[in-house]
């Protein structure tokens, strides 16, 4: 592609990632992101590089009930392989049913379990990143999922945070439980629930987990904004693969850079405004096709437009109009107003993007931290946690 430029060479020869019988040639994972990693966005990312591209999270119960939105989330394009989905659940029964349904109906080749969601309305009922604190519940969910998935040889992985806060870390113990339950890999986002998306991800914790679990692949997640960051994470922590979230928002080509770096090549995508504009239009078309609804697709593209143009010299007034774009024809008109001759702006486009914010006191059920085992009242509260889940 014409926008590829030479950069400082960074070499890395990491072997393919093995998840059960699946082989992921480029050990890179698109992090599940609710509202972002749908079929349309995954297609754009996949076109740039190899890796494992995970759906948005789907709630176990909603999936078992076959709600239309859940069925939309787990749908894949016919050429998408492997088909990877993420399930969020708070009890072994519903997670087990959801996994069984996926496996029996051959709807995925890989299942990730979400234990990282920091949303207060979820954690205050004991779900998401609050859950691994209850080791009995965590064990039951992971074991059941692995057992159900094994009937179809579908590998299961877990994705989690470091713990609730620095005084209540869970990742080493949860990693061991997951390993002993037969997961194919463990992914760690190097932040606690308390941190939400603030501060920096703790790559030392990722290294610690890698060392503690020599017999299962460990994937590192948090603050990879470039291929060079990914290489540094592998070098510093020894992980078997990297998981990329916010860094690819508005930059699907990052997966091309990652593949290049992992193959020891130094070429990188440096798109100018014209390529960004073409990608936005295509992304919008894919969203419209996916939702089967032009207005819905265009509502969804608006946040992506802001990410795509981060660091590009696009005027405030044009940005504001794009933030309200109602249909594809208007999007085309607005994109035509851009100066397509402008090249890659450099540093302004790189570095952190997306959600950040500040630490938040963890919202937990009363007395949650008092015991590592689940009480009866807490078990009831969890049911509501699942009904409220919306991403991680
Ligand atoms: C908009 C958004 C939605 C997310 N949704 C999910 C989700 O559905 N499941 C999940 O496990 N993590 C979710 N996450 C967390 C990411 O997968 C990832 O762990 C986190 O962003 C840290 O990685 P990063 O520094 O590369 O962004 C979400 C993050 C963002 C920013």
UniProtKB/TrEMBL annotation:
<dbReference type="InterPro" id="IPR004652">
    <property type="entry name" value="DusB-like"/>
</dbReference>
<dbReference type="InterPro" id="IPR035587">
    <property type="entry name" value="DUS-like_FMN-bd"/>
</dbReference>
<keyword id="KW-0521">NADP</keyword>
<dbReference type="InterPro" id="IPR001269">
    <property type="entry name" value="DUS_fam"/>
</dbReference>
<dbReference type="InterPro" id="IPR013785">
    <property type="entry name" value="Aldolase_TIM"/>
</dbReference>
<keyword id="KW-0820">tRNA-binding</keyword>
<keyword id="KW-0288">FMN</keyword>
<feature type="domain" description="DUS-like FMN-binding">
    <location>
        <begin position="30"/>
        <end position="335"/>
    </location>
</feature>
<protein>
    <recommendedName>
        <fullName>tRNA-dihydrouridine synthase</fullName>
        <ecNumber>1.3.1.-</ecNumber>
    </recommendedName>
</protein>
<keyword id="KW-0694">RNA-binding</keyword>
<feature type="region of interest" description="Disordered">
    <location>
        <begin position="349"/>
        <end position="369"/>
    </location>
</feature>
<keyword id="KW-0560">Oxidoreductase</keyword>
<keyword id="KW-0819">tRNA processing</keyword>
<dbReference type="InterPro" id="IPR018517">
    <property type="entry name" value="tRNA_hU_synthase_CS"/>
</dbReference>
<keyword id="KW-0285">Flavoprotein</keyword>
<comment type="similarity">
    <text>Belongs to the dus family.</text>
</comment>
<dbReference type="Pfam" id="PF01207">
    <property type="entry name" value="Dus"/>
</dbReference>
<dbReference type="InterPro" id="IPR024036">
    <property type="entry name" value="tRNA-dHydroUridine_Synthase_C"/>
</dbReference>
<comment type="function">
    <text>Catalyzes the synthesis of 5,6-dihydrouridine (D), a modified base found in the D-loop of most tRNAs, via the reduction of the C5-C6 double bond in target uridines.</text>
</comment>
